[in-house]
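C-alpha cells as discussed.
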C-alpha cells in the first residue's frame, strides 16, 4: 500500500480539448510519520552533496521549499551512504526536516564519470574524485537510496546521450525497463516512494513504447527522463508535452533536470507537476540573476552605482535589504555572501512563479498569467 496520495484540484484544457496545466495536492507520510502536503506544480532546489550550495536549512524553510534533491552518485562516493545511514539518514545529517528526492545516480554515472563498460547487469565506471572503479546496478542504487532515507526514490535508468540513434535509444530503453523491474524487487524503507522513469529520446514511437512499459509497473509516480541534455529548448518542450500525455492522470508527473523559467511555464502548461534544475543556484554563483523583468548579469559595470533593488517585485532578502550596486560589489570582490544572496534571490524567483502558476490554474486564468509573465520577463535583455 502506497503512502502517497495525489489529487488534481483544477486543470486547464488546450485548444484540442486535451487536459493540460493542472494544480494539485501531493500528500506524503514522511520519514517521521507525519502527513506532509505539497502544492503542485512545484520546483525542487538541488542539493547535490547534501546541501543546496551556499544555503542553510533555515534559508530553505524561509524560501518555503518543500522538497529538495540529493544526489545518489555523489553521496555514495563521499561521504558514503553507509556513513550517512549510521548518522541517522540524510535528513538528520543535513538538518533538513522537509522532503528529499534522491536521483538514481544513473545520469552522473553516464555523463560525469569516466565510463568503462555498460552491460545488462549495470555500469562499471571510474570515480571523478580519485579514479577508483565502481559497479552500479539497480540493486545498489536502491541500497544507497534506502540508506540515505530519502522520501522519493528514482529508478536506476540508462540516459542515452544527445544526439543518439534510434538503435542507441532503444537499447537504453530496454535496459531502463529491465532495471526498473529489478529495482522494484528491492525492499525500501516503509516511508519511501518510487518514481519510474520514461526514456525514448526525441523519438515519439520510442516514447510511446517506454511509457507503456514503465507505467505498467507498480511505481508510485512517474518521471520524464532523457531531456534537457543538449537538444534545443523547443525540441525539449515538444517532447515533454508529447510524453506527459502518455502518463497517468492520477499520479504525479516529474520532468527531470529542466529549468529555464520559460521551460517551467511551457511544461506546466503541458501538464507537468514537479521540476528540478541546478540552473537557479548555479547561475546565481556565476552572477546571472532571474528577475520579473528578465535576466541580469550582476557583474555588468552599469550596476556599479545603481542604488535600486535587484527586482522591485521580489520580497527576498537580497532585494529588500541590498542594492544592485552592493550585489555587484560582492560578486566582483568574490565575497562568499554573493553566492548566498544571489541563490536566495534566484530560488525565490523560481518558487514564486510556481506558486503564481498554481494560483492562476486554480482561478482558470493560466493563459492570461503566462502572457503577462512573458511580456514582463522579456522586457529587458541580458
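Sequence:
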Amino acid at each position: 500500500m502506497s503512502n502517497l496520495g495525489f489529487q488534481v484540484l483544477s486543470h486547464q484544457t488546450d485548444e484540442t480539448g486535451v487536459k493540460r496545466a493542472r494544480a494539485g495536492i501531493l500528500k506524503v507520510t514522511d520519514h517521521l510519520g507525519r502527513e506532509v502536503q505539497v502544492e503542485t506544480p512545484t520546483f525542487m532546489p538541488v542539493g547535490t552533496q547534501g546541501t543546496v550550495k551556499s544555503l542553510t536549512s533555515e534559508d530553505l524553510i524561509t524560501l518555503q521549499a518543500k522538497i529538495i534533491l540529493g544526489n545518489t552518485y555523489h553521496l555514495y562516493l563521499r561521504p558514503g551512504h553507509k556513513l550517512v545511514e549510521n548518522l541517522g539518514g540524510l535528513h538528520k545529517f543535513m538538518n533538513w526536516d522537509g522532503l528529499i528526492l534522491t536521483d538514481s545516480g544513473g545520469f552522473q554515472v553516464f555523463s560525469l564519470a569516466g565510463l568503462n563498460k555498460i552491460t545488462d547487469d549495470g555500469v562499471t565506471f571510474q570515480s571523478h574524485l580519485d579514479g577508483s572503479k565502481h559497479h552500479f546496478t539497480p540493486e545498489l542504487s536502491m541500497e544507497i537510496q534506502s540508506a540515505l532515507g530519502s522520501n522519493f526514490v528514482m529508478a536506476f535508468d540508462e540516459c542515452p546521450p544527445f544526439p543518439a540513434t534510434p538503435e542507441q535509444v532503444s537499447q537504453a530503453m530496454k535496459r531502463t525497463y529491465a532495471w526498473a523491474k529489478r529495482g522494484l524487487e528491492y525492499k525500501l524503507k516503509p516511508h519511501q516512494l518510487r518514481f519510474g522513469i520514461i526514456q525514448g529520446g526525441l523519438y515519439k514511437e520510442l516514447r510511446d513504447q517506454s511509457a507503456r512499459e514503465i507505467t505498467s509497473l507498480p511505481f508510485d509516480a512517474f518521471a520524464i527522463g532523457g531531456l534537457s541534455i543538449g537538444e534545443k529548448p523547443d525540441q525539449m518542450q515538444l517532447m515533454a508535452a508529447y510524453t506527459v500525455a502518455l502518463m497517468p492522470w492520477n499520479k504525479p508527473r516529474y520532468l527531470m533536470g529542466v529549468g529555464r523559467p520559460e521551460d517551467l511555464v511551457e511544461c506546466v502548461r503541458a501538464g507537468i507537476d514537479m521540476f528540478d534544475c541546478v540552473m537557479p543556484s548555479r547561475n546565481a554563483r556565476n552572477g546571472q540573476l532571474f528577475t520579473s523583468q528578465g535576466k541580469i548579469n550582476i557583474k555588468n559595470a552599469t550596476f556599479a552605482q545603481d542604488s535600486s533593488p535587484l527586482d522591485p517585485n521580489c520580497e527576498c532578502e537580497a532585494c529588500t535589504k541590498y542594492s544592485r550596486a552592493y550585489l555587484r560589489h560582492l560578486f566582483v570582490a568574490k565575497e562568499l555572501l554573493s553566492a548566498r544572496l544571489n541563490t536566495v534571490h534566484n530560488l525565490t524567483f523560481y518558487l514564486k512563479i510556481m506558486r503564481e502558476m498554481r494560483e492562476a490554474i486554480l482561478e482558470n486564468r493560466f493563459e492570461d498569467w503566462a502572457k503577462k509573465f512573458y511580456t514582463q520577463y522579456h522586457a529587458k535583455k541580458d
